[in-house]
């Protein structure tokens, strides 16, 4: 299902945070939200998943305006893995994944056989079924992220919204999680910090600065040395990744490049 935002603006206490953000994510594609700290990535995701109501503009999932449909219906449209989620220490892994079924259940309804089967499948999909009776609090960072992804999968929504899903993970766990996300085939919008991950895993990226879209489109067309200098204040060069043959970015602080140029001349 396609996701689109049109002219989304948000101010908090009179400070503009998002200013007329427009984007489209094609059905089944992976879109990266890129931008410096404070550029508005998390706020934009919160607008998409119905936590912050934009003062202007609209967010559509398929044909549905996420701010017009009932909350339960929104739960069937999109699933979320937010950042640093606080969860009660006593929940087991299975309890947490089972929470993904809530939008499918009536109030106080018991888990159905279908719910149980979907939870089993979600646990298996992310490879965490062995830990289902463990308390969530006892898991490593990478395991927790997989559990939260399993909860999102159990929700069965066609759209997945992720806020820095690889944060705090070691490099192996990062690549494993991104591979898994890519293979799901869902319409995915993810705030990402690592620009090489954006190139390797995203069909499109949206580059944000000060709550505005600077550029959007194919990763290699957006993550150009000029854009990276303008938005991140770094010198960047595009090389070829020695292992994958894909475009690969290397960076230097602007000052370091000046120094090297002085030495060379
Ligand atoms: P990012 O995820 O790109 O780092 P955020 O969306 O978290 O950026 O934040 C964008 C800007 O909005 C930042 O300047 C942040 O301080 C501000 N901001 C976000 N949420 C709030 C809030 N609840 N109250 C005040 N300012 C906020
Ligand atoms: Mg953020």
From TrEMBL:
PROSITE patterns: ABC_TRANSPORTER_1, ABC_TRANSPORTER_2. GO terms for molecular function: ATP binding; ATP hydrolysis activity. InterPro entries: AAA+_ATPase, ABC_transporter-like_ATP-bd, ABC_transporter-like_CS, P-loop_NTPase. Gene3D superfamilies: P-loop containing nucleotide triphosphate hydrolases. Keywords: ATP-binding, Nucleotide-binding, Transport. SUPFAM superfamilies: P-loop containing nucleoside triphosphate hydrolases (SSF52540). Residues 3-235 form the ABC transporter domain. CDD domains: ABC_Iron-Siderophores_B12_Hemin. This is ABC transporter ATP-binding protein. The lineage of its organism: Bacteria, Bacillati, Actinomycetota, Actinomycetes, Micromonosporales.
